[in-house]
């Protein structure tokens, strides 16, 4: 049974003020596509610009803005799957930047969208799970209420490993038991590998246990 590795939490959000040439070239193409009513093409241009900010500039906030714009264009074309992919990126980076309310709204929106799509329904649990984690970082009670809400909206969520992990983490947090928290994470990781984003969120939650214990001393 593998043990969960807890790599050091990192979030490189360096801001650059000099736009890359590729991004500058994409902007006129985007405007031209919009004028011609080719919103799907315009959305793709915004995704390209977002990816440039991700990789070349590491400018997360600008990448978020372009993914949001791409999602809007896809929604206008009723391309829900493509819009969801862009919104997931927005939620991912918003949480990293500690913009938790925005991330929650995005993940709830995408989770609800997935519930209504037979082909994407199985993905809803992942988005509700991430929304609940963002709630958890902000406030334990919020996380409990959100979990009840998601179980009511999507009964299949109750039987998921993600939901069971959340309940164990909430119990460990309520008892201020960091060891039980870590064991729950290790158990989950032994079956479903925990990625860097999830590791970062879990470490932020675990830190609140340590802070609360310190406050009581």
In short:
74% of the residues lie in helices and 0% in strands.
Uncertain stretches of 5 or more adjacent residues: 7-19, 32-37, 213-217
What is the number of E strands?
Answer: 0
Provide a count of the helices. 10
Q: What amount of the residues lies in strands?
A: under 5%
Structural classification:
mainly alpha
- Please report the distance between the alpha carbons of the first and last residues: 36 Å
The whole-angstrom Rg is: 19 Å
Gross morphology is globular
Order of helices and strands: HHHHHHHHHH
Q: Average pLDDT across residues? A: 84
Fraction of helical residues: over 70%
The quaternary structure here is single chain
Keywords: ER-Golgi transport, Membrane, Protein transport, Transport
Subcellular location: Membrane
GO molecular function, one term: syntaxin binding
Protein name: NSF attachment protein beta
């Amino acid at each position: 049974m593998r043990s969960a590795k807890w790599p050091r939490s990192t979030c490189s959000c360096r801001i650059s003020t000099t736009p890359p040439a590729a991004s500058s070239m994409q902007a006129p193409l985007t405007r031209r596509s919009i004028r011609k009513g080719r919103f799907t093409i315009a959305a793709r241009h915004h995704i390209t610009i977002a990816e440039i900010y991700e990789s070349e500039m590491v400018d997360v906030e600008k990448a978020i803005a372009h993914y949001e714009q791409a999602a809007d264009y896809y929604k206008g074309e009723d391309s829900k799957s493509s819009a969801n992919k862009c919104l997931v990126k927005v939620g991912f980076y918003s949480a990293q930047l500690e913009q938790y309310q925005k991330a929650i709204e995005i993940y709830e929106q995408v989770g609800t969208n997935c519930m209504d799509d037979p082909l994407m329904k199985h993905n809803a649990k992942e988005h509700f799970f991430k929304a609940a984690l963002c709630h958890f970082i902000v406030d334990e009670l919020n996380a409990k209420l959100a979990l009840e809400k998601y179980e009511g909206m999507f009964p299949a969520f109750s039987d998921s490993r993600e939901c069971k992990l959340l309940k164990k983490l909430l119990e460990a947090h309520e008892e201020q038991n960091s060891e039980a928290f870590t064991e729950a994470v290790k158990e989950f990781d032994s079956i479903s590998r925990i990625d860097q984003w999830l590791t970062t969120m879990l470490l932020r939650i675990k830190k609140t246990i340590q802070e609360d214990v310190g406050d009581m001393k």
